[in-house]
Amino acid sequence: MSDTSADVIVVGAGLAGLVATYELTRAGKRVLLVDQENAANLGGQAFWSLGGLFLVDSPEQRRMGIKDSYELALADWLGSAGFDREREDHWPRKWAEAYVRFAAGEKRDYLYGLGLKVTPNVGWAERGAGTATGHGNSVPRFHITWGTGPEVVRVFREPVMEAATRGLVTFKYRHRVDELIVEDGAAVGVRGSLLAPSDEPRGVASSRDTVGDFELRAQAVVVTSGGIGANHELVKKNWPVERMGPAPESMVTGVPAYVDGRMLEISETAGASLVNRDRMWHYTEGLKNWDPIWPGHGIRIIPGPSSLWLDAEGRRLPAPLFPGHDTLATLKHITGTGHDHTWFVLTRAIVEKEFALSGSEQNPDITGKDLKLVLQRVKKGAPGPVQAFLDHGEDFVVRDNLKALVAGMNELTPDAPVSYEQVEREIVARDREVGNGYSKDLQLMAVRNARSYLPDRITRVAKPHRLLDPAQGPLIAVRLHLLTRKTLGGLETNLDSQVVRPDGSVFDGLYAAGEVAGFGGGGVHGYNALEGTFLGGCIFSGRAAGRALARSLA
User: Fold this and answer.
1) Sign of CA dihedral 361, 366, 372, 375
2) Of 188, 209, 263, 537, which one has the fewest beta carbons inside 10 Å?
3) CA 371 to CA 391: how far, in whole Å?
4) CA distance 385 to 260
5) Residue ranges, the chain, pLDDT below 70
6) Is 33 helix (H, G, I), strand (E, B) or coil?
C-alpha cells in the first residue's frame, strides 16, 4: 500500500507528535499521523502523567512568595545536567538554554491560550543534592495541570481532530514503521508493517501480528515515537555500568508496552546521529500496581521528605539521599547494595499527608477537575488511591509495633531479610533527634526547611514526630522497586528539531521531537532532570519541529 497524500509524516501519536501536527495544521500543511497502536492510545504516555509542568517565575510562584528567575533556573538546570561531552552535548546545551527561556517566558501563555490551566499549589520536586551548585530545584517549580495528563493531551488533540475534519490530518493507526525511506540523502517517507486490528483499551498491550505492509511518502518525516522505558533489554543494554553500577536484575515498568525504542535504531540505521544513549531516568520509589493496565505495571510514589529510607539490609540511606531529593544519586547507591529493592518506614500520619501517587488515573480528583474531591486531601485520612494500595498493594506492611512490622517485611523478602536490631537502631537514632526544633540530622533539617514553605506545611509535609510514637501509628513499611521511565539521550537535533548526522550535518527531511530526541538536541537534561520537564520537552521540541517545517515547506 502506498500513500503520497501529505506534506509531512509524523511517526508517533504521543504528545510531541500531536504538538508538531497542531503547528503544521495551523499553517495549512497536510499531515499523516502514523502510530503502531489504535485510536484509543492517541496522546501516548502523556495521558498517564500527572501533568507536571516546569515553569519559571510564574504568577502561581509569585503568589506563593517564591522568588524565581531565568538565571536561577538555568543555573539549577546546568548544575543538574552536568554537561561534559564536547561533541554530544553541543546541541543539548543550546536546547537547555532555549527551553529554560521558554519556561520563563511564553510557555505558560502558549498553553493557557490553548485552554490549559494549572493548580495554584506549586510543588517542590527534586530538591537536590544539598549544594547550591549541584543537582536540584532551588525553589518549587512543579506546576500540576488542572486535569493532569489527559488535559495536556486534550488541548492539542482537539485542534488536531478539528483539522482532520478539514482534511489536513489523516490518522494511520496500527501502522508500525520498520524503515525510513531515504533518497538522495533526504528522508522522503516510511515503510512498515500493518498490524492486526486491535480494540484493546488505552495502555493495554496489543498484538504484534502483521496483516500486510505499507509505504508512505511526503516532503519530510518527523519522528516522535518515544523512548525505551518498556524495553527492559534495551534499558540494560544501554545501562551506564561505570557511572551507575550494575544494571538491576528486576524493575517494574512505568510506561506502556509500546514504549519500545524501535525508532531509535531505525533512525540510526538510516543515518541519524544517536547520542547520549547511556543517559536515562528511572525512579527509585516504585510499587507493583495492584490493578495493572500494562505488563509489569509500576506506580511511583511521589513522597514527601519524612519517611525513613532503608536499604534492603535495613541500613539508612546516607545523606542527602532523602525522599524527593536526588533520584539518580539514590539509584546509583541502591544498585551498589546488591539488591533491587529498598524500604520506606513511616507512620500513618506520614502516609496520610505525604504520599501521592504519580499518574492521571491515581489522582481522580485533579484529573476529573473535582474541586470538592481535591479539598478532601486536607482532611484526615489517606487519599482514596493511596488507601487502595494500603488495602490491596503487595508492597505494603502495616503493623502496630516494630517487631511485627519487621516480621512482615521479612515475609515479603525472605531471601533478603532485615535484622530487627538494625532497623530498631536506625529508628531510635532518628527519633532521638526529633525532640528539639533543631538537630544534627540532615533529613530532619530538610523536613523543617520544607515546612517553611506554606503549601508544603499545609498539604504535603507532616509535622516531625517520633516514628515509634503510638499516637502517630500504626507503623508502615513499603517495599520500593526500581521503576523504568524516561530516556534522556536520543536523536541529535538542532534548535529547529532537524535531525543531525554523525558528521554534524543536517539530515535533510528528517526531524525528531519528544523523548526520542532526548526531549531536544539528543539530551536536553544532561544526566539529571528537574521534573515537570518531560511534558514540557515534548511540547517545546514538537512545537519547534512543526513551526520549522511550516516555514520551510512549499
Assistant:
1) positive
2) 209
3) 25
4) 28
5) 1-4
6) strand
